[in-house]
Design a protein that fits this description.
The protein is about 45% helix and about 20% strand. The protein has about 210 residues and is an alpha/beta fold. The longest helix is centred in the last third of the chain and has 19 residues, at about 190-210. It is globular.
């Protein structure tokens, strides 16, 4: 059973707002794609800032890129039922809080979530028993089928040591095996081609839900 706060989230779907979930392995460019989509549709889309226990990377800002929490803070909020979904990724905790999703939907915006395959699976599971969530949920996976290209992208970031890169490439194989669970799959190519594909998906889904 969902608590009263979670139930209020589902009630907002009657406004026909979309909950757009974007997933993909590290290096797929999903974060950049999400940023571009919110910039292109400032009147209709709001990005949900998710929480993580990992340390900020250079240039990242708390409350803008992520809500950076200590592990103790995250676990306390998890125990009190504040999260819509959560997962362990590369040893760190990630999750989206109910109120962070709710505030956008209640205001009539489409909410954009950048989550891993575990988080997306949680949302799909909840949608199975909530018709309004099911009708509003749009899931998109950004796949990099060429592993040499994926390695090039991760190495080009220059932010992670080699052992971390190798671990992420291995994790990407598992993540990409779940692409078939998503409504839409973008085969990553150039940044412009990827954004054009995401843009088409959004406009198609928005028109379908009107």
């Amino acid at each position: 059973m969902l608590g009263s706060i979670a139930l209020s989230v589902y009630k907002t779907f009657v406004k026909r707002s979309l909950l757009i979930v974007v997933s993909g392995p590290a290096g797929s460019g999903k974060t950049t794609l999400c940023a571009r989509l919110t910039e292109a549709y400032t009147q209709t889309i709001r990005r949900v800032v998710t929480c993580t226990t990992r340390a900020p990377r250079a240039g990242e800002q708390d409350g803008v890129d992520y809500h950076f929490l200590s592990r103790a803070e995250f676990e306390k909020q998890l125990e009190t039922g504040l999260f819509f979904e959560n997962a362990v990724v590369h040893g760190n905790l990630y999750g989206s809080r109910i109120l962070d999703v709710e505030k956008h939907l209640e205001a009539g915006f489409d909410a954009l979530l950048n989550v891993d395959v575990q988080g997306a699976a949680t949302l799909r599971q909840k949608a199975m028993s909530h018709a309004k969530l099911a009708s509003s949920l749009v899931t998109i996976f950004v796949r990099v089928s060429d592993h040499a290209e994926l390695l090039r992208r991760l190495t080009g970031r220059g932010t992670d040591p080699l052992d971390e890169i190798n671990r992420r490439v291995a994790a990407a194989e598992w993540e990409m095996s779940h692409a078939g669970n998503y409504q839409h799959v973008i085969e990553s190519g150039t940044r412009e081609a990827d954004f054009a594909a995401l843009d088409r998906i959004y406009l198609t889904e928005k028109n379908r839900h009107r």
